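Example 3.2
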Amino acid sequence: MEIEQRLAEVRNRIATTVKKSGRKAADVALVAVSKTFDADDIAPVIACGQRIFGENRVQEAQGKWPALKEKTLDIELRLIGPLQSNKAADAVALFDVIESVDREKIARALAEECEKQGRALRFYVQVNTGLEPQKAGIDPRETVAFVALCRDELKLSVEGLMCIPPADENPGPHFALLAKLAKECGLSKLSMGMSGDFETGIEFGATSVRVGSAIFGSR
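Structure, written as tokens:
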């Protein structure tokens, strides 16, 4: 199947699930996850009208996105992978949204860089809903206080929460927990659901889904 067909299929599945859930199509944004794919693979997806893309690594994104963004000015680029504080300056310079804020050190580095560069990014706090030691994300029990720190003290524009449920568990309870935490934080955006579970994410209130392999094929 061609990449354009796969994209159309994903869009149809999103539209069907949104309708079933009694929501509007505009309520759910598709983030096309282009990590490990080069500019030649991404160009056809841009040509189909896709404008929001997600990358896992700052360095990899630096190699392909400046030129792509120059050609298509309304691209929104999101960092969805873990961020080290020594990459904060590069991340703020390149990305429009950072979805993986998960600890005070990185939040402070990002706040400092936004001020230094005069950039107004949007942020999501990543929550480790499964409390997996190998995975990034803040402890669910610390989420409300951490969001308050980011917004009130550091003045970061936190608009939502993001999670990646454990691979071997039903994602539903994790998505439900994220939605509950977002409500407690007074946040309206939920980034949850990937190629294997984005329909479940939408059913639980996702406002954006991060889909890679279902669009670009296997890596």
